[in-house]
Specification:
By secondary structure, the chain is of the alpha+beta class. Helix content is 52%, strand content 22%. Strand 9 and strand 10 form a beta hairpin. The N and C termini lie far apart (172 Å).
Length: 340
């Protein structure tokens, strides 16, 4: 015995009634919706965008077929082509001994956690130092970076820590803390790059930068005293070097002046001797030609040179007559000097 259910007057038909009345129409609606979704998925999966600092590695059925540059690109839909984006133009970094936590109030915030398993190192003279450094690198080959090794970033961290421990272990603690920072950075960067090249990881190490290089807190006061003593020694050495740089040029200048004066004096004496010799030779020639005349001339010239230097000559008589000036040579010499 069948019972029919009547719907209330003015009510809308339910889904079962619609499907019962038009099953073909309902199937076509479902298929149309599915087709529309598939079409929408295909359209949205046909295009992808690569940012300016990225490169895209395109794989088709798991095999790499292309590397695309920044911009909008087409790919086969429905997951046939898969795209992996790699930031090849961005400078990446790995931090050792500390971690940054972004910025707070315009300043870089650091984590308060201690990473002593990374930062504590033993130097060549068996001293312990706390070393923090940063390795900056760039992905040079996206295919090698993705598929040459399983964890290239972790490998880079392990290699960096191993290299820095070896470089620091081959140096004195005083050199690491003071003058050896630049050499450690350069040597560490070169060795890390050589190892990464052997692994063919597609990573280019840009630089290794040392941040804080300090002794452990337990020996910090002793180190400060040693550092102050070293600075005082350097200051005294610099002052002594400054004094040397001042005194040596001054002594050299005085020596050169003395030598120049001696050479000038020697030249003057030689020239004077040559002049006197030439004068004597000329007088000798004249004397041989006219002996009497030359002898008289020499006698008169000698008197002319000697008498003005004698001064006053007074003659005193025995009968106490006032002195009589014999030759007024002093007045004559003064009158000659007063003439223009």
């Amino acid at each position: 015995m069948s019972q029919s259910r009547s719907r209330p007057a003015g009510g809308s038909p339910n889904l079962q009634e619609l499907l019962g009345k038009s099953p073909k129409k309902s199937a076509s609606l479902v298929l149309g919706a599915i087709a529309f979704l598939i079409l929408l998925w295909g359209i949205t999966s046909c295009f992808y965008t690569v940012q300016p600092e990225q490169r895209a590695v395109v794989k088709r059925f798991g095999a790499v077929i292309d590397i695309t540059d920044p911009g909008l690109h087409f790919r086969l839909p429905f997951g046939i082509d898969q795209v992996q984006l790699v930031a090849t133009e961005r400078v990446l970094k790995q931090e050792f001994g500390f971690r940054t936590e972004g910025e707070r109030g315009g300043r870089t915030a650091y984590s308060g956690k201690q990473f002593e398993d990374e930062s504590l190192m033993l130097t060549g003279d068996l001293n312990i130092i706390d070393l923090e450094w940063v390795v900056q690198y760039r992905i040079s080959d996206p295919i090698k970076f993705l598929y040459s090794m399983r964890e290239p970033t972790r490998t880079l961290r392990d290699i960096s820590e191993s290299v820095m421990r070896r470089v620091v272990g081959n140096r004195l603690g005083s050199d690491v803390l003071t003058v050896g920072r630049v050499d450690i950075q350069q040597l560490g960067r070169d060795e890390i790059q050589q190892i990464m090249d052997r692994y063919d990881a597609g990573i280019h190490v840009i630089t290794v930068e040392l941040q804080d290089v300090v002794p452990p807190p337990a020996v910090q006061p002793a180190f400060n005293e040693v550092n102050e003593a070293r600075q005082e020694r350097e200051r005294m050495i610099n002052e002594a070097q400054k004094r040397v740089n001042q005194e040596i040029p001054r002594a050299q200048g005085q020596a050169m002046r003395t030598i120049a004066e001696a050479e000038g004096y020697a030249t003057e004496r030689v020239n004077r001797a040559l002049g006197e010799s030439s004068r004597f030779s000329a007088v000798l020639t004249e004397y041989r030609q006219a002996p009497e005349v030359t002898r008289s001339r020499l006698y008169l010239e000698t008197l002319n040179e000697v008498l003005p230097k004698i001064g006053k000559i007074l003659v005193v008589q025995d009968d106490q007559v006032p002195p009589v000036p014999l030759l007024n040579l002093e007045q004559r010499s003064r009158s000659q000097e007063a003439r223009p």
